[in-house]
Amino acid sequence: MTQATDKLDPARAQALWTVLGQPDAISPHLPPFFHHIYFWDVQPAPALGRDGHPKVGGVIPDMGFPRRMWAGGRLTFHAPVTLGHAAQKATRCTQAAQKVGRAGPLGLVTLEHQIEQDGQLCVSEEQDLVYLPDRDPDAGQPSPPKAPEGDVIARLGFDQTTLFRYSALTFNGHRIHYDVDYARDVEGYRGLVVHGPLLAQHLILAAQSALGPLEAFEFRATAPLIAGETADLVTDGSGSFWVAGPDGRQCMTATATPAA
Known about the structure:
By secondary structure, the protein is α+β, with helices and mostly antiparallel strands. Helices cover about 15% and strands about 35% of the residues. The chain is built from 4 helices and 10 strands. A 10-stranded antiparallel sheet has the order 1-3-4-5-2-7-10-9-8-6, covered by helices on one side. A hairpin with a 5-residue loop joins strand 9 (about 240-245) and strand 10. Helix 1 (about 10-20) runs antiparallel to helix 2.
């Protein structure tokens, strides 16, 4: 288990609020999912892997797979988090298993995060990570799922500057978000990849706008969105939300539960 404390600087939350296109000043309470811009895990360069993330072998065991993806997560909101006050984050690994998926072997890791403030549990989160072997350049890419029809809430664009600013605020060194040669030549993407949690952040704010304060939110990434592409945030009007790429592929699904 690892533990960290952060004072939750309001200026950092305001910066992300602005990057997300919100015009007004942020409230005294931390918006949902914003805790990812705090509790940075700052490691020296020799402790980083080739992808820019901290090397595995600590909380996350080394299963021999070099490529990392944030596959999804589940969040429960127990109490508001107040900006400008210290909060504590505890992280532990609850699952680490090798499996075989559609494209071959992989490692599936689940991290549990708990955010407390003034002795009260405020946010519980389960974060699913997938680790993959190096890509086979001769292997084909699996077909992404097609997004269903629904009510479009917003259309968003993600350029390189937005990806850079989000990486900086979350202290995310993953090179697929800023090193286009690495993203294409090593990881096999068509270009820079839009962060999965950045898409989830837009979805969770859209869900909160539609449903009011949330009790729970879960999401799952289903296909990458590439910098320069537009994305539609879509809902069925009953708690399900998703991200559709410009060609109609489904990039992410989510379910939101309003607070009682």
